[in-house]
Amino acid sequence: MKVKKTNSLEDDSNQQFKESFDADLKQLQKIVLQLENKIHNFNLSRSSLFEKDFCLASKIRDYEKGLIELALKVSGGSQVKALKLLGVKKSTLNSKIKRYKIQSNKLVY
Predict the structure, then answer these.
(1) How far is CA 47 from the centre of its chain?
(2) Would you list the domain boundaries of the chain?
(3) Mean pLDDT of 2-7
(4) pLDDT above 90 as % of the chain
(5) What percent of the chain has pLDDT over 70?
């Protein structure tokens, strides 16, 4: 029976990555909860719904763009980490980055 040798340096690196990713995920979840609370507490008056400049699709796009930018910022600009945080496919994230003209290299802390 063969015993699989493990590379402790690789294991340490994987552990550090996992810990860093978990910390980033917790931070993003906290920020998303804060955003959700702000949106929930935002009291949209009836009259503003009927203003001619109000556009629900625009508000949703702004919110989505903000979440993508935040995920990229928290993940240090890594699209792979950001897509995992957002729970979207790579093609979806890439298309939204292009659509919203997000420059991920400028979103690093």
Answers:
(1) 32
(2) 9-106
(3) 58
(4) 28
(5) 75
The token pair that represents 9 in the structure block:
């340096």
- C-beta neighbour count of 31 within 10 angstroms: 16
Q: Which of 65, 70, 5, 60 is nearest to 32 (CA)?
A: 70
Question: In the numeric block, which tokens belong to residue 18?
Answer: 């996992």
**pTM listed for this prediction:** 0.56
Cα 41 to the center of its chain, rounded Å? 22
The confidence band for 87, taking pLDDT boundaries of 50, 70 and 90, is very high
H helix runs in the chain, sequence order: 8-41, 46-49, 56-74, 79-86, 90-99
> For the chain, how far is it from start to end, CA to CA, in angstroms?
49
